[in-house]
């Protein structure tokens, strides 16, 4: 049992306490590597771990909850406590975190409600989620003998809204479900976000998010505190020690020595949570997306973040720099040697079998038939790929075709031959089917959801509904009678490799190989166009030849002694006969800069 108080300082069991925290997202790291990452945080001299809790991972379908395997939050908390780490938990409905839809489940888009608001329907949805989540974590609060110091109500709400009734509703849901530890909000440190995103008037603790200029940013927070008569400790809840990356853009880096000095500047005045300490990986289809004007810019699979631990979980030059700074200025925090993992030897795998997507649709997809094409949300398949199929009677030798209002990326096939690929703003441009008048053309459209935005006003935009949302026009009329194939990548044991492979079509490529030892590895996807990879059934994420990342990380927990299978789903018809296992990530120089 212990006591954590927020007065003019943080107090732990009656003694002043400086929080040295690092962010580790359990849902971005394989369960078998949680101990490795937490141990390395403790070895740095830190005393606390922070994690978000992603609603959409725990309730991907309405009313269906998952808290097992890599989503076993309780086990993560228990491991932290065993290592002597305290926990800051951020179970807010919205997390941002460069995560698909900011952690909001996509099924909310089909509900009659307004997200992140005091709309009773939204609050009710959160309440049902909290019934399952908070009943699991309440027992781990410090007052109950656990390691949890405090929990977050909402995340950067001042950069989104000013609905204080909503913030109070979330607070009340938490309190009603047994949360007695201190609660907090985190926002940008300037007055506009602090005024609109906090509950300072209700004595809810306020933290700030920034990545530099700590003295200035803390001064803004102190000024806001003084307006409300508060004398509170200063804490940067997200000190951005690196940054995330998007497709087609250079890798973002930060100098280790400069970072260590910036961290010292924070610690001279307050407490810190390094965002990220270990970034990990956006496994599956869970990468987020940035909103820029009319474009949505999806982020890459790797969430390396240029953090203190690399994607694999090993210490970087930043780790060493911060560790040296702490040893110099804060020797009272004990440090020890970190853990380091190794990789498999490099090797080349030969393709074992290959087969076309189109020949396997009936066996690996859930099929619905409708008059008009439906969106991904309408067919309850909000992530990944949805293939639409219909038959077109040609009224002329050349038929005008337009895809009306679809997201995010559409590949159009006429009689299984690629007609065009359209992406975001290109969608809706005229295309032309060529054939003979009065004959029938088979039309297939493979649509990919490349990630919903995770921040800002576009959370409410219609662009977050994926797939074909209005229809497909031939000449001037909407085409009727569609089949929708929801590609189910949990059913790939049904793939029939006797089905013919066709060049220049989406296809599956199988690589079978034997291991006598199991370690981490990276797949160098050079030579493949665009798609996803599954390793022994584990969806390790997306690849795209545009870069900047060309490899995919495979944690050792996804491999096994003996026979292993890699399945590459490639959509562009760009592939090669071999696949390389390598010991470090590979990159593409997308703008002539040194990576």
TrEMBL record:
<comment type="similarity">
    <text>Belongs to the glycosyl hydrolase 35 family.</text>
</comment>
<dbReference type="GO" id="GO:0005975">
    <property type="term" value="P:carbohydrate metabolic process"/>
</dbReference>
<dbReference type="InterPro" id="IPR008979">
    <property type="entry name" value="Galactose-bd-like_sf"/>
</dbReference>
<dbReference type="InterPro" id="IPR031330">
    <property type="entry name" value="Gly_Hdrlase_35_cat"/>
</dbReference>
<protein>
    <recommendedName>
        <fullName>Beta-galactosidase</fullName>
        <ecNumber>3.2.1.23</ecNumber>
    </recommendedName>
</protein>
<dbReference type="GO" id="GO:0004565">
    <property type="term" value="F:beta-galactosidase activity"/>
</dbReference>
<dbReference type="InterPro" id="IPR017853">
    <property type="entry name" value="GH"/>
</dbReference>
<dbReference type="Pfam" id="PF21467">
    <property type="entry name" value="BetaGal_gal-bd"/>
</dbReference>
<dbReference type="InterPro" id="IPR019801">
    <property type="entry name" value="Glyco_hydro_35_CS"/>
</dbReference>
<dbReference type="InterPro" id="IPR026283">
    <property type="entry name" value="B-gal_1-like"/>
</dbReference>
<keyword id="KW-0378">Hydrolase</keyword>
<dbReference type="InterPro" id="IPR048913">
    <property type="entry name" value="BetaGal_gal-bd"/>
</dbReference>
<feature type="domain" description="Beta-galactosidase galactose-binding">
    <location>
        <begin position="506"/>
        <end position="564"/>
    </location>
</feature>
<feature type="domain" description="Glycoside hydrolase 35 catalytic">
    <location>
        <begin position="10"/>
        <end position="327"/>
    </location>
</feature>
<keyword id="KW-0326">Glycosidase</keyword>
<dbReference type="InterPro" id="IPR001944">
    <property type="entry name" value="Glycoside_Hdrlase_35"/>
</dbReference>
<feature type="active site" description="Nucleophile">
    <location>
        <position position="238"/>
    </location>
</feature>
<feature type="domain" description="Beta-galactosidase 1-like first all-beta">
    <location>
        <begin position="373"/>
        <end position="488"/>
    </location>
</feature>
<feature type="active site" description="Proton donor">
    <location>
        <position position="156"/>
    </location>
</feature>
<dbReference type="Pfam" id="PF01301">
    <property type="entry name" value="Glyco_hydro_35"/>
</dbReference>
<dbReference type="Pfam" id="PF21317">
    <property type="entry name" value="BetaGal_ABD_1"/>
</dbReference>
<dbReference type="InterPro" id="IPR048912">
    <property type="entry name" value="BetaGal1-like_ABD1"/>
</dbReference>
